[in-house]
Please model this.
Amino acid sequence: MSAIAGNLQAVLARIAAASKAAGRLPESVHLLAVSKTWPAACVREAAAAGQRAFGENYAQEALAKVMATADLGLEWHFIGPLQSNKSRPVAEHFAWVHSIDRLKLAERLSAQRPAGLPPLQVCVQVNVSGEASKSGCHPDETMALCQAVSALPGLCLRGLMAIPEPADDEAAQRAPFRRLRELYDQLRAAGLPLDTLSMGMSHDLEAAVAEGATIVRIGTALFGERTYA
Ligand SMILES: *Cc1c(COP(=O)(O)O)cnc(C)c1O
Model:
C-alpha cells in the first residue's frame, strides 16, 4: 500500500471513530482531500486509493492539477481566498467553492458559471474566531449574505465554512465550531435549505465532527507536511 493510501485509511478511521463517539453515521461526514502544494501525482495516488473529492487554495496551481487529472473525473473544491478578478476559471472548472465571503464574489461566480454545468455548489465562509486579519464574513452579516447568495441562479448555497484559529485542547477547539453550527441552525430555521458544515482540518477534525461537520478538509494527515517554495 502506498503511503498516501495508508494515510487515507487512517484518516477515514479517525472520521469513523469521531462519528461513532458523536452518535453520528460515518457516511454523514465527507472527506475533502486538500492537495495544495502537492503534485498531480499525489492526487492520482489518493484517487487510486478511492478518494474522489479534492480541495485547492490557489487558483493557478489548482487549474494545472485539474487539467492534469481530467481523465479521472474527480470533484474539485476551491477552498482558498479568491480575488474577484480571478473568479472565472474557478467558476468554469470547479464543482464547489467553500470561501464565499462577500456578495460581489458570489455574483461574479454566478454570472461566470457556464450554462451547460450544474450550479456551482457554495459555502459562505464565516469568521468565527474574530480576528480582523482572517477571511470570512462577520457572523452578524451571515444571514443577509446567505439570503442574497441563495437567490443567485448560477450558485447553489449548501452551507457554511470556517477556519478557526488553532487551539490546544478539545474544548477550545469545539467552541468556534459550535458557533458555526449555531449560525447554521439559525439559517435553516429561517428557511434556507442548507445541508453542509465545512469545518475541521488535520489537527481538529474530531472536534469538528463532534460539533456537526459534514465535510472535513484534510491535507497534512493525508499527504504530509507542506513546504512552501
Ligand atoms: C490547507 C487547508 C486545509 C488543510 O489543512 P491541514 O491542516 O493540512 O489538514 C483545510 N482547509 C483550508 C481552507 C486550507 O487552506
